[in-house]
Amino acid sequence: xxxDPKVPGSVWTRPGRPQREQLTREQIVAAxxxxxxxxxxxxxxxxxxxxxxxxxxxxxxxxxxxxxELMELVVDDIYxxxxxxxxxxxxxxxxxxxxxxxxxxxxxxRHPWIAPELGQAGLTHVGxxxxxxxxxxxxxxxxxxxxxxxxxxxxxxxxAYVIGIATSEAAYLSLIARSGRTEREWVADQRPRFDAxxxxxxxxxxxxxxxxxxxPEKIRDDDFAYGLDRILDGLAARxxx
Amino acid sequence: xxxDPKVPGSVWTRPGRPQREQLTREQIVAAxxxxxxxxxxxxxxxxxxxxxxxxxxxxxxxxxxxxxELMELVVDDIYxxxxxxxxxxxxxxxxxxxxxxxxxxxxxxRHPWIAPELGQAGLTHVGxxxxxxxxxxxxxxxxxxxxxxxxxxxxxxxxAYVIGIATSEAAYLSLIARSGRTEREWVADQRPRFDAxxxxxxxxxxxxxxxxxxxPEKIRDDDFAYGLDRILDGLAARxxx
DNA sequence: GCAAGGCGCGTACGGTGTGCGCTAACCTGA
DNA sequence: TCAGGTTAGCGCACACCGTACGCGCCTTGC
Lengths: 241, 241
Known about the structure:
The structure is a homodimer.
Chain A: H1 25-39, H2 46-52, H3 67-79, H4 93-110, H5 115-120, H6 128-144, H7 148-179, H8 183-197, H9 203-210, H10 216-240
Helix pairs in contact in A: 1-3, 3-6, 4-6, 4-7, 4-10, 6-7, 7-10
Chain B binds a DNA duplex through loops.
């Protein structure tokens, strides 16, 4: 006696509201982000997303053209988390750029699945948040004193660095997360395998063994800061010339 | 009267050699690279790959644990295309680093599907070519004069930049390739849409409109070289200090 | 009160990665 | 030379995937 097949329109089964409140784009994007954060990019399927919203998979297509477009919306939504500082002039440019780059990396590590998508978002995604962030970053380099032909390149350099490093870190962290261990445990577990494999490439070992007892998360933070400083040094030198 | 179902062992149907020459890992990897170069990463399926090798999809699993492992092998194979120059000392370090970075970018643009994978190949992939390249790059930074604790970081900075920029470029070029136009045509086609979308972000337009008639490929080359020079400037400054 | 349009959904199609167990060919040792 | 064990290729099947299509309900505008 399945009641499921939806009896016509009995007032009793329909609680005033349309029984199934409207699906919205915002809802869908938000649920997709939840799912992505919780289970990663390969776990996101239209069916699972539908289930999470108490809807059929195909219902989503009324609000989103296809899965690729959904990912574009999702990426743009995440860009909304970013607040790019305003530089008042060359004096505080460097601090502002450091903060912007640090925030961008932090954003990518909060949502590790986003890193590979970030690279693709340059010219091809034109969502409002993506464009706002680009524009604000450009303003930052403009305030720094970069001439019109160079501010794009300077921004591109910084962005490429952050995206590159975040992609690597995110992949590494996802791997660890899937293994169910903490980062420290994982590093310790992998050492023998790593040592054995690097037997004929002794150079690969040196760096790591020196700081065997340092918190791996701090190492990553410091590595990022090191590269960022070098790049800002290089850009600053260009400004002075 | 289908002869297909493999008559027992008649000497006539079996031409001395085992009728179906052995599948090998190398063959599979080579065919996968062909397929990836020709049709991109989302077109690579075990079934298609099997067809290309006149084999059933499941036969591949005798030589490769799963698709992810296949991709690891493929990435390492591509790394084999790289030849990292040797730096004899601080004097020619910069030229060597420039060549290594340029070659790495060229490799990624020859095989656009590889860029997103590159980021993930850091610590998690330990193939022979990947490790050789890492080791040779480290040697390069060592010859430059970076102390032991810093050469890893210096290398990481450069690699992150190249991977970041190559990921963006590869995504952009793949998009264009799928559209069937040349890069120049595509850029021209997109301009109206781009202008409209950037109406409220005028800064986004400036950079592009100045060099409207320059070959877009040259622009990308120059942009890459610009960032590379800034980063090497920053690293060199560190060496001097 | 009625027509029209939007929306959710069931069904279905053509794909995907890959586990399982069969068969036939090969290699080994006696 | 032959028996036995090991291996490689394969057909089948399963559980999933993205998404096109068309039905029927509900809401809205008149």
